[in-house]
Write a structure and sequence with these properties.
The protein is α+β, with helices and mostly antiparallel strands. It folds into 2 domains: about 55 residues, no CATH class; about 180 residues, Oxidoreductase, molybdopterin-binding domain (Sulfite Oxidase, Chain A, domain 2, Alpha-Beta Complex), CATH 3.90.420.10. Helices cover about 30% and strands about 20% of the residues. The protein contains 7 helices and 10 strands. The strands form 2 sheets. A 5-stranded mixed beta sheet has the order 2-1-10-5-6. Strands 3, 4, 7, 8 and 9 form a 5-stranded antiparallel beta sheet that branches. β5 and β6 form a beta hairpin. It is globular, with a radius of gyration of 18 Å. The protein starts with a helix and ends in a 9-residue tail after the last helix. The chain binds the ligand Nc1nc2c(c(=O)[nH]1)N[C@H]1C(S)=C(S)[C@@H](COP(=O)(O)O)O[C@H]1N2 and molybdenum atom. The site of the ligand Nc1nc2c(c(=O)[nH]1)N[C@H]1C(S)=C(S)[C@@H](COP(=O)(O)O)O[C@H]1N2 has 17 residues, from loops.
Length: about 250
């Protein structure tokens, strides 16, 4: 059974077991432990809160499954962005991305802006993990990059920080993760894939990889990371673009 369907079963079974009144209790507990996701309102809100709080209480340090080289997908599927990459991107691409920068700001002691070359000069790690799109397709690839935790060490987050917001050269796609995922050893700022520089269709030169969550959390073409204690000030205040389209903010697998 895939990890995804296993989680659905567990979450579904748990929700059936606790029932509607249990969800109310769970929501109160979640509030007490600061485990309320930003999209906790609306019809699916109580379920979202239950899933997120349960995952964080039980599973915070779990690792996403890693695969062997022989399991890497022969034909990974790139989900092309819509609208397509524009002028600004093409100009940067023509300069071999030497002017690409990742700005890191918000509630940090030492805000910084890193060039692609600087990010590539940091000690790199690799992981062979599964990227699953909420629309059903998926692939396994080897990603190379810098653990996000390393970049956070450099910029020194203030103690009250709770989320890292990722923005891209494509403003319509943005995401955020909590500190459990931001500091998780498999969360990467990735610049390589399957032994080459990260190809443009897959988010090159720089993307986030959050292998413990569905593909949509792995923002492509990242240009800015902002640390915050409150997601209300971003977009419609639901934590990312996904809940604005009806998907869950927390998409753990
Ligand atoms: N900037 C940006 N990042 C994005 C997207 C996007 O449209 N724009 N799509 C997301 C979705 S829905 C998925 S499933 C994955 C797809 O990654 P892939 O192109 O490597 O398959 O990227 C995510 N990151
Ligand atoms: Mo997706």
């Amino acid at each position: 059974m895939s990890q995804l369907s296993r989680r659905k079963l567990i979450a579904g079974g748990a929700i059936t077991a606790v029932g509607a009144s249990g969800l109310v209790v769970a929501a109160k507990l979640a509030a007490r432990f600061g485990l309320v996701p930003p999209d906790s309102g609306g019809v699916y809100g109580p379920g979202e809160t239950f899933t997120y709080a349960a995952q964080r209480l039980v599973n915070r340090h779990a690792l996403a499954r890693e695969f062997t080289r022989s399991q890497i997908s022969a034909q990974p599927f790139a989900n092309l962005v819509d609208p397509p990459l524009g002028e600004e991107f093409r100009r940067l691409e023509q300069g071999a991305f030497s002017s690409w920068r990742l700005q890191v700001d918000g509630m940090v002691a030492r805000p910084a802006s890193f060039s692609l070359a600087e990010i590539k000069s940091f000690a790199a790690r690799t992981q062979i993990t599964h990227l699953a799109c909420e629309e059903g397709w998926s692939y396994i690839a080897e990603w190379k990059g810098v653990p996000l935790s390393h970049i956070l060490d450099l910029i020194a987050p203030l103690p009250q920080v709770r989320y890292v917001v990722s923005r891209s050269i494509k403003p319509e796609w943005w995401e955020s993760v909590d500190m459990a995922d931001a500091l998780h050893p498999q969360t990467f700022v990735a610049h390589g894939m399957n032994g080459t520089d990260l190809p443009v269709p897959f988010g090159g030169p720089l993307r986030l990889r959050v292998p413990r969550q569905l593909g949509y959390k792995s923002v492509k073409y990242i240009t800015r990371l902002t640390l915050t204690d409150n997601l209300k000030q971003f977009g419609k205040g639901l934590g990312s673009a996904a809940p604005e389209e009806g998907y869950a903010w927390y998409a753990g697998i």
